[in-house]
User: Fold these one by one.
Assistant:
Number 1:
Amino acid sequence: MPHRATRLPHIKILWQRAWRYRSAGLGFSLAYGFVFAISAAVFLTFLWWNTTGTLAREVGQAVEADAQSLTDRLDQNGVPALIQAIQDRLDQDVEDESLYLLMAPDGTRLAGNLHAWPKPVRNDERFYIIKISRDGRTASAQLHAYRLPNNLHLLIGRDVRGRDMLRRVLTETFLWSWVMVTALAIGGGLVVRGIFSRILTSIAQTTAAIAHGDMRQRMPMVGNEVDLVAQTVNKMLDRITRLMEGVKQVSNSIAHDLRTPITRARNRLEDASLHAKTNEEMHDAIDRAVADLDHITSVFDALMRIAQIEAGARRAAFETGDLVKPLHDIAELYEATAEDAGLHLAQDLPPRLMFYGDSRLIQQGVANLIDNAIKFSPPDTTVTLRASLSGDLVRISVTDQGAGMAQEDLARASERFFRADQARNTPGAGLGLSLVQAVAQLHGGTFSLEPLQRGLRAVISLPSNSNEKPPAPQQITEASPSAHDADI
């Protein structure tokens, strides 16, 4: 016989192989079938125990009632009446289930259908279930002995062959029922495994296709609860697709839009290095190159702010407060800029506007909208900042009276680095509305552009309250946005 130590590696290898080919669906179905079978076994066992116990209690109660009746007959009319009562009961027992034996003090049999006192019955404190011989056959009987006055001994019982037969029938019925229930549990487990396997297969096929570069693949809808998983996965894939397209767009835009200022700064520095004759010419070239590089730095800073907002990092600064003062402050900040452009900046703000979120981010988003409105509004027109509470939504809008935007440009206005044709010659990099969109999404709201008969209305719609509290609020200090910050 091999030593135990030599068998351990083989056992370990077998276990590793079994674990390698493990199946989550199989494990789930086996657990389902096991729990179902055990539950059925417990239920059927309880039914069997309760049924057989009820039959035994009924026999005991019948024997006790019979003994009390015979004792009363003895007390009232004596031994002859008792003997007659026993005989009457035997005559009326059509099913031949009643058992009686009345014995005198000297052991003489006085009445009953039992010929001798059973040896196992020795006291009168409990019931006995024994085998007795009757009419040449052996039967099970439930007996109880009673000590009567005058030292008489009475034995009363019932033939429980019928009960035993019923118990066997119940036992066989419950066993077969359990076998059938177990078979159904196994079948149900296999069905559950099939459903589980189809769900996982669908997810695996979808993710495998995406892993090979097919971002159009989506989980199919089957019309049941599995659609909840499919919808969640498809929404996740849609967001991943949008993010990847955004990354691709940003990469292309950075390569296209930043190449010009970088090349211009390099050429200026190279030209100054080769042709500058005075320190003033050299300093002027360096200053212009620094201005180009500052513009590039501001673009990257704006991209980082948008990325932080989209990642939810700024949610830690959420708090409940009045939004009217921050909006009024940003409007005052831009009043001078509007006056220099020959515009009037009007405010339509309520006395109080409670809001849960980051008021500084809202300020920065509104600053971008006001800055855009001032850039593209003709002189002697009005830019209006308006805020209101509509139901559970805080609605902030900036309306101008400019030329507006083409319908095809409205759908792309919030894309990073997108600039409409009329904005090509204005300062900026096309990131302002992207930041507004990110701020609105961070607060669980929306950002939209509404064309008017004259001008354009930019609307930020935000929920006034949020049930999602930040896990660990931190104090964040940040300066209020300036006109330079909005120029992105």
Number 2:
Amino acid sequence: MPKFLVIAAIICIAMVILGINRGFDVSDEGLYVLLAHPLQENQGGIFNYDLFFKLFHQITGIHFGIVGLRILRLFIYCLGALALAVFYRNLKGEKRLSLEVYLISLLGLMAGYGFLPASLSYNHLSVVLAAGCLALLSTGTPKLTQNLSLGLLLGILVYVKVTTALLLGLISLGLMLYEKRLNWKVLFALLIPFILLEGVFYLTLSENAIIRLSDGLSIQTGREDYHWWTLVKHTGVGAFWSLLLFVISFLSFRLIKKKFFQALLIISAFHLTFFITHITDEWNHFFLLLGVVVWAWFFAKSDFSRFSAKEKVWILLLLVLPFVLHFGSNVYWLRIGIHYLVFWIIAWLILAEKARLKSFKWVNIGISFSALLLVFNGLWWHSFEQNELWKNTEKWEYLPGKTIHLSSHQVSTLQKLKTQIGEEKELLAAYRNSGIPFLLGKTLPQSPGYWDKEQLKGFFPKGYSKDVLFSPIDSLPQNFTQEPILITDFR
């Protein structure tokens, strides 16, 4: 096994651990931490995995704060890498797990630190749950316990991201039908865990996913960024540019003999595609587009007559899985797709081993270097909606016994807000700044995050008369009578 994989994995983990108590993003990360807050309401929520945190707190009294959620993310990434190593072992029919595959999988998962904050979220949970589903689906002779386990993972996925659960559930049924092992007993085993979870949550917390989704459908569909066509476009645009670059690269590898002209055409197409799709400050989609070129190289160099029909099905699934997992997101695929890159990496491993491509070691080196760069850039240097992590040196206690290091400007702002705002346990924050109430030891009324005016009007049709933290991304509804507390810069 190459030593550089071990070194890269150790350095990536070290970078995560060293920054685990530094920095905080009040927008997306504010939503993540409030979803883990045992006292936070989540009426009509799309993401309902907070029910697990509430039930866990009810049983144990443990509340996962910022540091706890960051540790939890790293831990489930380690579990996800293990699931992918099991999946690879099942496909190869081997008896032992490969440490090399495990480390490559872990590095692929850790590339997700390149975009969005470090705390555990639905993006990370959906990737790891999908990895677990692959491990169970690839088992040669599944037993009742494995079908129940698959049903449990898909059931949990309903609470994490319902669109992904539905699509991955249909894919799972399709694979079982293809392998002629789908019957009413299997269907029953797949459904039982979700039914039990819904019952447990209703009996203990008086709510569950079905109740929340039915209540919140009208509120969320009122948001322009959650219209059906918009969600299709967010995934479809990424698929279009990926397919275009793939076709150009594939034809170049197949039809052009001289490597210089191959490289010239591919680099030109890559350069053009990268800058056309570079619509935000982040550049992590560079690695996704590079991955498309790697796919084209594998397809051009591989002899698919050597692959069994089953292997072709798995390779196709790993190719499309990043688009499946993304569907339902209101963020463009090329921005957030870095979280799903690991499934392409596993497919490349299968292709390289089958085609006996000796040059694949350079792909491994590229994966290691890319993961190191993405973790350093996304976590330390260009932290999502934050200053560099090393600038966060001031300790702030946001809940009794729970602290985080922030910038001096952030601490100063929080101290002023603490004297300005009363002792109310709840504080409404609009828009995209739900992390500020959290840092003040408060929760938000009804929902853990408000992103636009339509969402706010949906939850408060009769208005709101108490204090509102206001970030002027959008205007407040007219019937919000209280003078808002303006927040313009919290970095």
Number 3:
Amino acid sequence: MKFDFATLNGMRQHNPAWRLLCSDHAPLILSFLHQVFVRPNVRNLEAESMAEALEDTLYAIRQHLDDTAFPRTAREYLEEWASPDKGWLRKFYQPGKDTALFDMTPTTEKALSWLEQLADRSFVGTESRLRTLFDLLRQMNEGTQSDPDQRLADLLQRRADIDAEIARIQNGDLALMDDTGIKERFAQFTRMARDLLADFREVEHNFRRLDRAVRERVALWDGTKGALLDEILTQHDLINESDQGRSFQAFWNFLMSNSRQEELSQQLEHILSLPVIAAMQPDPRLRRIHYDWLEAGDHTQRVVAQLSHRLRQFLDTQNRQETRRIMEILHNIETHAFALRPYLADSLPHEALIELDAMAATPDLVMERPLYAPPHPTVLSLEPMLEEIADDADPTALYEQIVVDKLRLTENIQQALAEAPQISLAALLRRHPLEQGLSELVAYLQLSSERFESLIDEKTNDHVSWDIMTADGSSITRHATLQRVIFVRSV
């Protein structure tokens, strides 16, 4: 980024974060969005809930300041903040639903992060950050070192240092970190943990931007459908193989490891129990910050999956024709607008800019309706059928019903989560095999969405199996493949 006058002046006029900080309502906007999005780590909210929360906030401010403060309604403020010229909120609709949702944009997240940096700090730690820089350089050097002898020499030197430290500890020389070093590193950890949560919105924004570029290219495509298919698959691979996609996938694979999560939980519990850290009164959410990372990462995974699904819909011929027609109308409007630009300084022309087909009613006349025709009665006779199957039918099958004991399944999940912070459905079924087949498996999936917090890893599939008994007493093994479902302990 260049810090010249032209660049900074353009950012001041067009950058949403800069314009937000310069807004007269910046304290209201930033405090409200921090309260409803950042503090509880919520990714999106329905318009009704947002409006009610903002009305409560406006009422409290008016009671404190003046009844004339912020005279507009909450809905008007939300629509203004989500307008294209502001860009502080993102308003969107989920497929198949007519309820609007709001989410905070990455630029608003950057404005909040910048304000946090303005707060006074009791001390500025430099030693821990210097060590972090050295660790990053060491990782890059090791990752790019192609000489096997040099790699072995580095590993042997590291092993020698570890052996020397083990010898010192065995001799009673146990070096402990002082309180200053602990507070310095904890402040750095807190900052980086919150920055990681804030980065997820920018990750989603970048994925949507890549997807939008692909959509525009497909909408303007005038070649064959086979070439279009090749273009879509190529662009889809570019999204997954981009720096953003590869970095996020590496993060997700690292965090989804059970051992990593258990290690994080144990280390957080130990650090937060230290007297020097307890005296700092840390944010209680830090105790479950890795679960917040999981929730935010899972939301981003679902966004990427939705983008991929909608991208595949472009292969549909009717969808493609409708999209092309819309783009033609937009280009026609744009062409007329550019042609009329010289006249806008004086006066608008009287002729129409563009003509669109008006909506018209399609009446259904009474005499066009057909006359009522009574249906012919259907007579059912089961006597011949009963005579044919009377010898082979087993009437007891009509009374056999499978009732799944959900209380037993709930106890199985609770017992597993009491021993570990999370467990996958496949691992749970290895401990408690299915006794009632597919019905019991469906009951577990229903409990994962209704009774327990759960995550779905759409990149990984699990295979489960169960045995069923046939009428002749033999056993048949059934198999099922499903996306990995992970039960997470509530904190």
Number 4:
Amino acid sequence: MGQEKSQLRIGIILSYINMLVGNLIPFLYTPIMLQLLGQSEYGLYKLSSTVTSYLTLISLGIGSAVVRYLIDAKIHDGEEGERKVFGLFMIIFRVIAVITLIAGIWLTLNIQIWYGRSLDADQLFRMRILIFIMVCNTALNFLLSPYISVVNAHEKFIFLQSMNIISTCVGPILNLIMLFLGYASIGMAISTIVLGMLVNILYLIYVRKSMKIRPIYNNISFPLLKNILKFSFWIFVANVVGQLFNATDTAMIGAIPQLATEGVAVYNIGATFNSIMSSLTTGITSVMAPKINNMVLSGKSGKELTNLSIKVGRIQCYIMMLVITGFIVFGKPFIYYYAGKGYEESYWVAILMMIPNMIPLAQTVCLNVVIAQNNHQFRSIVYLVIAIINVIGTWFLMQIMGVIGAALMTGIALIIGHGFAMNWFYKVKSGLDIEHFWIEVGKTYIIPIIICVVFCIVSRYIDFYNIKLFFIGIIVYTVIYSVLLWQFILNEYEKNLFLKPFLKIYKKFQV
């Protein structure tokens, strides 16, 4: 038990180190990359990545089922049962990898169907190369992904997060080497597949040599396979929705001649800040997933699950509100320093995506509860309907407002789907006390909003495009935010959570 707690505690610390590094590196890496690639080539790279991402749907959502069924087999059938389930998933993902490769080759050869009007011949040729490399990387990741799930299911968070940190640090370094050597976006795609191959091999070695777990391929349980497919179907629908929300905007922007790769670049710079906010707030949830599964499978009450949701949700909101309110105040000059001229609309893209996204990010534990309960059909259906509306609305709004229209429609869809429909579902079907959740979590919004309004007024009289004033402003904002939240919002549990690591360090240095 003590070792498991240590793994969880150190895993959370490492996850936040990974997030810190993962969000600090882009500040240094992205401006250099944009200068070396240029707006059009960066847009082409992002467009290729987006198109290739649709191939992840071939997994049919089974990836989300691996951890759950490994844990369930371990609890009820012991080590041998777990190894049989492991073997079943290895077979499934080998089939998925082959299908992905075949579909990806077809996609590579027929990309002109969608982008023949918006891209010239040279861009189409480079896009084919990029997509083929990315397809190979996707198939490789599918092939070995069950090994990562085994590490996660056994809560080996130290190794898991250490590998994430290595990937986060090494990836940009390899990309920059390729860019300085003159290989542009194709070099970046090659470095990604090389790094992915090495990381996957390390997971394989760790599971087989250190954890001493090997898959068993005989006596495949077809009833179990049927249950996995049934469980995964609604996650697959949710993944389709995720693609419609997260990727289709970029895919459609690239198909419009007046926007094309430049529009993709502007949109993705704005979306990057939304991704940064998401990554900063999902670190705890990523390591809490096995615990949530165990709580649900062990029959914990709705009250206990609600309390866990509130604890995690409040901590996530402290981080979210600092990021989003700070971005509202300092975002325009930051994008100027970060990406240069030509990306002014990225500010509004980011704002229109970040604010609605606060709702699901505060409720990531609630979502994990729904998945663990195998109760996510309604969620998937609602999201699918909203996503289809989003795609249709985005296409028309883009004709009027360009990339800002795409972000606006996505934000509206998020509010309808996550804000209204899912909160009703959490309350009625999942047994969570959603009113109590929002009362407790909502308290974390009040002071940040007041600080943001005050600083927006102050920014009218201070030129934050002056680099010195810009950094001073961010420091002052962060200090005021932290002090006021500590004084008026944080409860004793949260204060102890932040103080405990420092108290332990202090005691170690006591004579």
